[in-house]
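User: Protein folding is very new to me. Would you mind checking the protein record under this note? It all follows right here:
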Amino acid sequence: MPIATVDPTTGETLRTFDELDAEGVEKRLAAAAEAFRAHRATPFAERARLLRRAADLLDADQDEIARTMTTEMGKPLKAARAEAAKCAKAMRWYADNAERLLADEHPDDADVKDSGAVRAAVRYRPLGTVLAVMPWNFPLWQVVRFAAPALMAGNTGLLKHASNVPQTALYLEELFRRAGFPEGCFQTLLVGSRAVDAILRDPRVAAATLTGSEPAGRAVAATAGDEIKKTVLELGGSDPYVVMPSADVERAADTAVTARVQNNGQSCIAAKRFIVHTDVYDAFTERFTATMAALTVGDPMDEATDVGPLATEQGRADLEELVDDAVRAGAQVRCGGRRPEGQGRGWYYEPTVLTGVTPAMRIHREEAFGPVAVVYRAADLDEALALANDTPFGLSSNLWTRDRDEVERFAAGIEAGGVFVNGMTASHPALPFGGVKRSGYGRELAGHGIKEFCNATTVWEAD
């Protein structure tokens, strides 16, 4: 795939970039290793000062970088602005909290007395240079939620971003440089996916984090395993959204629309499978379908647009295949199910609601990465849980109920990295984020995320 900015509203290539050659990659690897030796020794207060400066610069650049993101991958401009603001918030959160999160831990004397120690501690130290392989769907946020904790922990970062968001990738390198981070602390590598294996095998790279597809995660995990290097993987999701009779059905249906079409439906944590108790199924489905059908599809630069184009032509083709396969097998299209008229050459797809989906259909098990929702009927919570868990993915989940017992049963029985009750899934700097099963392993954000790329060092002392 060429490294290029391609406008998803027209299919026009706006700008292309040369891929780094071997010499260019070597220079950046050497610079990252050199920067780590100095950066790991800087005090938290200095790292925090630099990260707060980056947040201030990002706030000032919000409109400009939002337009860049929208141009490169098609998210509505208002959503791109919100993404930039969220990134600045996360930077400040880690600047404020990293020292506390990584403070030395001191076990109780009684717990370690029989080890022969008079005192013991656990200290968190950075690992080194972390390679980040990141996707295009949240081109700023996915990177910042790795970079902010990694830099605050004393690591350095190398970013291999998706090939269709090169301008956003280069902006991030320049942002950290403008903030005052030393040369080599954070660098962008304009390389294709084939270059990742060799970079990850380089001894100067200590670990890797990847957000993206299952095949990409398997490839990075295989190489890292061969090299015995730490990885964190956040892969696909097919999140369930369960609605029970005690829920506020209107609010659940309205929130469901946002949960499904956020980022034009191209989000791992977007709700994709809506599992509704039979007592409220008709009311929920009617309101949900009507609201989905009423969404405005169009130019993502227009403030009135709700859903822009998909980021790539192949992404739309993949989505169409899933919907067409379901329809051929008997699924009912409640709304959408086709390319909208009057959108020219852009990669648009109508917000779509399907019912009557069965396990024989691909969309029952495969992730629909676009504005397509599947609504299921469930007789009770046990059936809803069984449907919710009937997927190879386990990223997050949603439950709508006023019944406390149902909340506890769902939280205990769901196979997912998160449970959001009476609201939609969202990531937040103070809450750990990640999945189970084929959604990956490890955690980002919060204290869990910053410790992923630290060495928990035991310090044992005797007289």
